Amino acid sequence: MEQVVLIICMENKNSMRKSKFEYYMNALHYCLYKGEVWSNFKVERQVYGLIGFLSTVLGLRKYWVKRVEKLHNDKELQEYLYGKEWGQSISLAHHWFGFFYSGYSSFLSFVLLGAVYGILGDVNQIILIVIVAVPIGLCYIPAYRAVFSKDPYLKYFKQFEKEDEQWHKKWKWITIAFCIGSIAFVIGGIFAMHGASLFFRE
Question: Which residue, among 115, 134, 127, 122, has the nearest Cα to 189 in the 3D structure?
């Protein structure tokens, strides 16, 4: 009986850890998406402003106002720019999430690369690619399952959109720290690669 209770408790803990990890990953992905939406909106405003100024100078202001109104009512265009399932903003969010998440596991890749260089010296380029890609790929699997496998991020996006301003500010700064940390791990990994190479060479 005690063993059954212990197994159930362990399963519950594992489930809670998995749930927290999934929540964290989707929150980061959501904030990256919101950042892309903000960035695209700013670019769109600047382009519209510039063309609007030129249209005023050329005496085409009325035509441009109608054109802008038509663009804002174009659902397919708005979905392409800001949609959550496909389009520019979400595609870039997918890309940046994978890029920054992989930065952490790249530290291990760099260390392994340094060790191989130290032990074997120059090796085949294909082997080097495998040494770099395998740790990153294996470490990315849990994040991929948490965010992209059967698109659970869409469910989380609906949840996060209901959160208050304080939540959004908190996770914005967490996401910024996540991105900076990823870059720091990549830079640290390069130094660690050099150190591992010297260590194993001796």
Answer: 115
